[in-house]
Amino acid sequence: MGDLKTASHHPAFGVIPGWAEDDHAAAFRAFLRTCQGPVLDGLPAGPLLRDAACALGPKIGPAAARAFFEEHFRPRDYAASDPPGFVTAYYEPELRGSRTKSARFHVPVYGRPGDLVTTIGESERARYNGTVTGFRRAAAGDVPYHTRAEIEAGALAGRELELLYTDDPVDFYFLQVQGSGLVHLDDGSSVRLTYAGKNGHPYTSIARVLVERHALRREETGMETVKAWLRADTRRGREVMQRNESYVFFRERPIGRAQDGPLGADGAVLTPGRSLAVDPAYIPLGSPVFVTVPNLVGEDGRIFRRLMVAQDVGSAIGGPQRGDLFIGTGETAGAIAGQVRHEARFHVLTPNR
């Protein structure tokens, strides 16, 4: 489809530095993935947005994509004042695994237990991260669900919940932090693991624990440095990981088309560099968000100024000026994601009718 409205643009977007220079077609393709699910029904004029986006289709050009966003949305500025906005980044890790437990593959990956009862919706995890929200039935009434330490000690053993086994407890821990992963099995096949729930205990950052213990300085808490510290002493590493009592369960998702990827909380396949995890109490899922990170340089060598789509959530992503950038899959993406901790500014696009 040809580009539309290339000569006239809405003045409300002129206040966003870098808006005109972005690749709006790339942002539109990420937005289109959200349009194909039910999440837009929660936005004002959601069905109209879906119809308008689907009518344009994925082959839309940059000018027509820009015109779409300017016609259907207006920017709301979360100014980076007090406190400033802040972004981190996440990725889809790759692990090795097996369907059979062995001396090498000994770390179980559990599916969601049938006796787990959660008291909040998954999109509300950040808002209630300070309280226990997962329980199990007991004779005396509901009790908090098993902690990470209890599960690793065998609380779920013998219940046939194991989806597969992996070979590295540290890599598995970070798989749980990221919420999804690509596992290459020893039979030559691969599966994607997608978030299926958590035990409902508060998420605790082990990087913060290490800083508080003076084991690492704050500037040393990149992901690879933390992994190396955990592996240097297995017993010490396990004790620190268990300080985070939160434990994530997974479900399998077969590998599909070449463009397949991990799923976000809105059910859409995430797009590297265009999908954003947010706190939906402030930024509704499905919303386009223009993110400016002055101290982050993109792969094009320019300051990170990019229209993204709110498609995911996280227990540590709380507040109106907090975002988590999805980088992609694999080791290279993980190395980039582990270094992103920057002040940022958010312009949330809200439907104009």
Features:
353 residues, Barwin-like endoglucanases, Ribosomal Protein L25, Chain P, six-stranded mixed barrel, six-stranded mixed β-sheet, 23% helix, disordered N terminus
Task: Describe the secondary-structure layout.
Blueprint: H1 24-35, H2 46-56, H3 62-72, E1 73-78, E2 85-92, E3 94-98, E4 107-110, E5 117-118, E6 134-136, E7 143-144, H4 148-152, E8 162-166, H5 169-178, E9 180-185, E10 190-198, H6 206-212, H7 223-232, H8 234-241, E11 248-254, E12 275-277, E13 288-297, E14 303-312, E15 322-329, H9 331-337, E16 341-351
Parallel strand pairs: 2-15, 3-9, 12-14
Antiparallel strand pairs: 1-16, 2-16, 3-8, 4-8, 5-6, 6-7, 9-10, 10-11, 12-15, 13-14, 13-16
Helix pairs in contact: 1-2, 1-3, 7-8
Task: List the uncertain runs.
Answer: 1-7
The CATH homologous superfamily of the largest domain is named RlpA-like domain
Structural class: alpha+beta
What is the name of the CATH class of the largest domain? Mainly Beta
SS summary, helix count: 9
Strand order of the largest sheet: 2-15-12-14-13-16
Mean pLDDT: 88
Shape: globular
Name the beta content range.
25-35%
Distance between the termini: 25 Å
Total of domains: 2
CATH topology-level name of the largest domain: Barwin-like endoglucanases
